[in-house]
Each structure stands twice: as C-alpha cells, then as structure tokens.
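User: Could you check the structure of this?
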Amino acid sequence: MNAKGGRHAALACDDETFRALGHRLIDQIADGLARIPGGPVTRHESASDVRAALDLERGLPEHGTAPGPLLEETAARLFGHSLFNAHPRFFGYITAPSAPIGILGELLAAAVNPNVGAWALSPAATEIEAQTVRWIAEFIGYPIDCGGLLVSGGNMANFVGFLAGRAAKAPWDVRTAGVRAEPRTLRVYASVESHTWIQKATDIAGLGTNAIRWIPTDDRQRMDVAALRQQLAADTAAGDVPCVVVGNAGSVSTGAVDPLREISDLCLEYNVWFHVDGAYGGCAATVPGAPEALRGLTAADSVAVDPHKWLYAPLEAGCALVRHREKLHAAFAYHPPYYHFDEQLINYVDYGPQNSRGFRALKVWLALRQAGAAGYREMIADDIALSRAMAQAISRHEELELATQELSIVTFRYVPREWRSKTGLPDVERHLDELNRQLVERLQRGGDTFVSNAVVAGRYLLRACIVNFHTGLADVEALVEIVAREGRLTERELQGVAQERS
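Assistant: Sure, the predicted structure tokens are below.
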C-alpha cells in the first residue's frame, strides 16, 4: 500500500505495457515457429546443458525482473533448447503440433481464467465445453447425448471411463464400501498391447494390477476375442466379477485396432462395461480409409479420445465420453454443504475428479469451428496416406525391413545388406536388436528426424507416427534416407567395437 491507500502489486501491469508485451511476444513466437522446419527437431544436450542454458541452478530471486526482458529472454531460450513436435520430421510419439488458433485460444482462455468446475463460476466456458463434447462425439460417431468432459490427456480420460465402469458394474456400492467390501475380485480385461494407463487405473482405483487379465493378440496385435470369452467364462465360474473390458482403437506401439464390435457383443452377453481407449485412433473413426473396426467404438459404454493428438490441440486436452450421462455423474458426484450449485445446470465438478478446472475446451472449440469436420477428416486422412507412403518407401529400400503399418504408425528396422539372408537366426536377431536400439538413440540425438521404438513379435523396431499437419511427402522420403545413412554409420561402429574386443 502507498501513503494514499492505493496498492502497488508486483505482478500488476497497465494496459499500455500489457499490449506492448503481448505484441512483442507474439512476434517472437511467430518468428520461432517459422524457424522450426529449417532447424533441428531437437539438439543433443544433456540435462546439465539445459539447466545451464536456462540458468536453472540459482535460487529463488529476492527481487523481481522487468517483464519485457524476462519474456524476451525466456522465449528465446525455450525456442533454443526444446524438442519440437511441430517439426515436420518429428515422428517419435503421438503428440501433434499446436494449431495456431489453439495457441491463441490458450491465451484467450487464460485471460478470462474461468474455473470450469461449476456453471455459476464459468457460464460461457461451461456451455462451450458442453458443445465441444457434443461435437467430438458427433465427429467420431458416438451418441451426442452422452456425458463427457475435457481432461488433461489420454490417461485421465481413460481413468474417467474406467471409474465410471467400476461404479456401474460392481455388484455393491463400491464408492462407499470400497473394492474390498466383498471377497469377490473385480476383474479388468485388456490386451497385452494396451497402454500402461490400465495399470495406473487399477492401482489408483484400489483393485491392484493383479486384477488385470491380459488377453493375447493375433498376428496383427489385435485382441483375441475367443481368448477373452474363455477368460470371462472362467472368471465368472470362479466367482469373480468381470467388471471392465478395454478395447484399443489404435494401440500405442503399432496402431492396432481391436475388433470392437465383437468385443461389445461379448460385453453385453456378460454384462461387462466396455471401454474403448481411442486416445490416438478414436478421432479417425469416421475418416474414409481408416480401419472399419474403428466404427465399433460407437457401441462402447465409454470412450477416451485425445484432442491434443489427432485434433492438433495444444497440450493438455483429453476427452472422456460416457454413453449414459447419469453413469458418469454417479461415478463422481458428491454434494457437501459448502457447494451451492444449481443441479439443473452442468457442474463439471460432478462429472470428473477435478474441482478446479481450466478452460481446456476453448482451444478445441475454436479449431473445430475453423477447420470443420471436413477439414479434420482431410488432415487425418492425409496423415494416414503419408504413413502408408512411408511404409511403401521402406519396403522398396534394400536396407530397411517393414514390420507393420496401421493407422498412421509404421514400424520397421534397419538390416544391413549382408544380414538380409540371415534374419531369423538367434545370433543375427540379437545383433539386429542391438543395432536398431543404438540407431534409435543416434537418431534422437542427431536432430535430423525423431523416431521412437516398439517391440513387435520379439523384435526391436523403429517406430514412426504421423499426427502432424506440417509433414509432407518430402519429409517421409527424407526419413528413409536418414535412417539408412545413420544405420550404416551405426553398424560400422558396432563392427569396430566387435573387432576391438576380438
């Protein structure tokens, strides 16, 4: 306070200064984004290198810094020391570049800063989120009168569907009495290709990871429905309670899509909650040329999708959809005396685990309005087509071996010419595993491209995923040549090490 009773706050900013700061920052961001395609995907820096570059070893400052130089310096350092999933040759993980309107939407959402936990605290934001949920459901072919909400990402969206299923299918009041109120075990079923969120969910929900029945897959990494039926029957006969079955709409390693219709029919027969993990592939469900099996997600009791994957929204943005809104409400709602919210309105505190919630929906809502459903179908179809083109280019290359291509994920490995006729031999396979393991590390350090890895049928493979509207055919073709070039160098180094040891 000053002598006249006015207040000077260290974080306050007058209108003129705020405008100047914002204009300068937008210019810096625009310049940084424009430079990404011509620069490295990432730089080979150690953790200590990054800490030193950003001056992150010092203690908390006692006195503040002027916001202009602070923002300018921070923007420069972030663009100088980050990995860029907006780079057209970033193929590593299922993380999309931010749509420009989504970037600006984040700024606008932060300016309004509503708490989207209760309608009274966020009337416009709540209604925008409700419409966004309906639009996402419509886009993937799911009932638009479903319940749903925006969450942080795929893990949390899957958790929400899982907890709704646990509450709905436990034969007792599991929310009040807990999972150990009866001696019967609640069982969860997922294919061996499922994402590790299922382990986190059973852990957090109190079931324990031993409650999971891991179902084998066929030669395309899709759940074996006959094996699922056999396990459901065996557990029912043993007195356990089959509770939730998880189907994959695009597995994390290869993009495999489980036979969702058949799984749904089996869940109806056994009265089990059917949840679909569509965090990656769910948004492709109505895209021409995508696997027909994806359309089976419309029969699920709950579905998880990630707008920050194939809707190209900035992180964080996941979406949980539950067919019957009341089932979602029944899984999360409590009404303590310190809440006085109108229950006739949407209060998202009753539909998910968070009370305080940011305005995640705005960036997704804006992008859906800008591109429309047709624009999104075209972008997703282009990503799938580029993935198939990548698979074809790999198949044509005499030093690369294609393993799988599903949705927009390709798995493959580098195989030197002299080893081509010997693949399958144990010693050769061990050598190829080590070669490709080192090759992935080399590619991730190099900056020319970025891939990850998968293990399929016991083979260590390179994995490339395209969920990037910046990627073009030239980037796909460049990947093939980069991998072959770096593969030769990696093999040469391995042979040199072997000779030294001998």
